[in-house]
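Tokens for chain A. Residues wanted.
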């Protein structure tokens, strides 16, 4: 579908594509939104969910920050590059496998303040589910999606957005994360493999 330069505006053709798509995971239509931290994925996912809501009764958004096991993403993984791959397996187990069987999925929610898993979130087996976060548009997930979206911005803008949102104290974590996510996205070919590419500024 190519590249566009916008952030909040949602093209009606993207909405129409998802509505017209046959359910790909049991009765669920999946949308994957990936891209580097600070690129605008959460903003896009929220706007896209709002655009879908008048047409579909149920639209869920699952955020990466809720399913990452802190900065490690998946604590048992040997490194963060492998962890992004392992994350897709977790999403399959927590959500996609139950949906295929016609059941609601559940995922634990990471508490960033206590550095441990907290509550459990149920994601019903219906409507559209938007997966939003680094690694949530990986090949294993986007191949099952009605639409996969890559959101990007220049590195300086991305870092400034994250530090403005979360504070300068995470600066070292964020710089290491940016390096690791870049390697993962190259390995996975996430940008090139996505249906739609959006640049924000």
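Reply:
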């Amino acid at each position: 579908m190519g590249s566009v330069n916008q952030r909040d505006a949602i093209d009606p053709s993207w909405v129409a594509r998802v509505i017209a798509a046959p359910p790909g995971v049991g009765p669920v239509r999946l949308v994957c939104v990936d891209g580097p931290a600070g690129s605008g994925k959460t903003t896009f996912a929220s706007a896209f969910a709002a655009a879908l809501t008048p047409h579909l009764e149920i639209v869920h958004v699952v955020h990466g920050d809720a399913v990452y096991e802190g900065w490690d993403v998946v604590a048992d993984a040997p490194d963060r590059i492998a962890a992004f791959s392992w994350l897709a397996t977790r999403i399959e187990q927590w959500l996609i496998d139950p949906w295929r069987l016609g059941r609601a999925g559940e995922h634990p929610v990471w508490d960033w303040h206590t550095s441990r898993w907290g509550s459990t979130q149920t994601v019903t087996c219906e409507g559209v589910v938007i997966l939003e976060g680094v690694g949530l548009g990986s090949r294993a997930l986007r191949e099952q999606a009605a639409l996969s979206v890559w959101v990007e911005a220049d590195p300086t803008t991305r870092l400034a957005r994250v530090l403005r949102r979360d504070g300068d104290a995470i600066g070292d974590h964020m710089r290491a994360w940016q390096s690791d996510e870049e390697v993962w996205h190259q390995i996975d070919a996430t940008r090139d493999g996505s249906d739609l590419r959006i640049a924000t500024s």
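Residues 3-199 form a domain with the Rossmann fold fold (CATH 3.40.50.300). The radius of gyration is 16 Å.
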